[in-house]
Every structure is written in structure tokens, then in C-alpha cells.
């Protein structure tokens, strides 16, 4: 099983960016954790971060047929990128959306996700363990659970 983990804008700043909201672990810490967890679960994990909408869209397109699922934290693109929504809708593999913070407890503009409606599901507010939970969910989805 192969999973692609996509992190959008400003997530390269994890660890230094608003640690009270996003925690003290860095993107490298997060990716290391996912690769290790993947090894334990028999999942081959590929991680990619970009601050650019088009790069994320290209990665989503290229994942189709190459991976069994996508985990994406689109960052602020969540709230307004119809292009990322359409990219997710265009592929036949399941996508799970993850947010580290509880977006519903924050500013109003964060309460809307234009992307969630085309995903298999969304995990919000559980910190970076949300990515691991998404990984397990994709594994279960593949097994038909
Ligand atoms: C985020 C929440 C978004 O509102 C924000 O723009 C981010 C991170 C999260 O993981 O909690 O960049 O997606």
C-alpha cells in the first residue's frame, strides 16, 4: 500500500509557527513519524510540502493510479481553493483532509472547507496524530472496513 502525504502553505514552518496552535514538532518530525508509522503498518509513505497551489495540484494529479490514497493538509487553501478541490475530485483514489488545529474553534474564515466535500473524510483538531489516524483510516478503507 502506498500513501502520499501532502502539506500545503506555511506547514514548512511547523515548530516555529504559532507553536501554541500547531505544537512544537517540525515538518521533519512529522514526516519522520509518518514514515516510521508507515513502516510498522506496511505502508509506503511519500511526503511532499509546497507553498504553491499549482505544485499541490500537480502532485494530486500524479498520485492517481500511483498511490492508494492521499492525506492532505491544504493549509489556508482549504478555505478558498476551488482548484485544489477540483484536483481532489478529479482523481479516483480516496483523499483524507487533516487539520492540526481545531479550525472550528478559530476565526470564522477557518470554519469553511471548500475541499472537504470531495474527500473521504476530515480529521480536525487532534494535532499531528491526525495524519497517523488518517493513514490508518486509508488502510481500513482499502480493506473495505
Ligand atoms: C491548518 C488550518 C488552516 O486554517 C491554516 O491556514 C493552516 C493550518 C491546520 O492544520 O490546522 O495553515 O490547516
From TrEMBL:
A Pfam family for this UniProt protein?
DHquinase_II
Q: Which residues are recorded as binding substrate?
A: 73, 79, 86, 100-101, 110
Q: If you read the UniProt record, what top EC class would you report for this enzyme, in one word?
A: lyase
Query: What superkingdom heads the lineage?
Result: Bacteria
Gene Ontology MF terms in the entry: 3-dehydroquinate dehydratase activity
EC number(s) for this protein?
A: 4.2.1.10
Kindly indicate where the leader peptide sits in this chain.
Answer: none
Question: GO biological process: what's one of them?
Answer: aromatic amino acid family biosynthetic process
> What keywords does the record list, in alphabetical order?
Amino-acid biosynthesis, Aromatic amino acid biosynthesis, Lyase
Catalyses: 3-dehydroquinate = 3-dehydroshikimate + H2O
Catalytic residues, chain numbering: 22 (proton acceptor), 99 (proton donor)
Involved pathway(s): Metabolic intermediate biosynthesis; chorismate biosynthesis; chorismate from D-erythrose 4-phosphate and phosphoenolpyruvate: step 3/7
Q: Where along the sequence does the record put site: Transition state stabilizer?
A: 17
Role according to the record: Catalyzes a trans-dehydration via an enolate intermediate.
Q: How does it assemble?
A: Homododecamer.
Family to which the UniProt record says this protein belongs: Belongs to the type-II 3-dehydroquinase family.
Q: What name does this protein carry?
A: 3-dehydroquinate dehydratase
**Organism source for this protein?**
Bacillus weihaiensis
Taxonomic lineage is: Bacteria, Bacillati, Bacillota, Bacilli, Bacillales
Instruction: Identify the gene encoding this protein.
Output: aroQ
Amino acid at each position: 500500500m502506498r500513501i502520499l502525504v501532502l502539506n500545503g502553505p506555511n506547514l514548512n514552518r511547523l515548530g516555529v509557527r504559532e507553536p501554541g496552535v500547531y505544537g512544537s514538532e517540525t515538518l521533519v518530525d512529522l514526516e519522520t513519524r509518518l514514515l516510521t508509522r508507515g513502516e510498522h503498518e506496511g505502508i509506503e509513505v511519500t511526503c511532499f510540502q509546497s507553498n504553491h497551489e499549482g505544485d499541490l495540484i500537480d502532485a494530486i494529479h500524479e498520485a492517481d493510479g500511483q498511490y492508494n490514497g492521499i492525506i492532505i493538509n491544504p493549509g489556508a487553501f482549504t478555505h478558498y481553493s476551488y482548484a485544489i478541490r477540483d484536483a481532489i475530485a478529479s482523481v479516483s483514489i480516496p483523499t483524507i483532509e487533516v487539520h492540526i488545529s481545531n479550525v472550528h474553534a478559530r476565526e470564522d474564515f477557518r470554519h469553511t472547507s471548500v475541499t472537504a466535500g470531495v474527500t473521504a473524510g476530515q480529521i480536525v483538531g487532534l494535532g499531528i496524530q491526525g495524519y497517523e489516524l488518517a493513514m490508518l483510516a486509508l488502510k481500513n478503507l482499502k480493506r473495505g472496513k
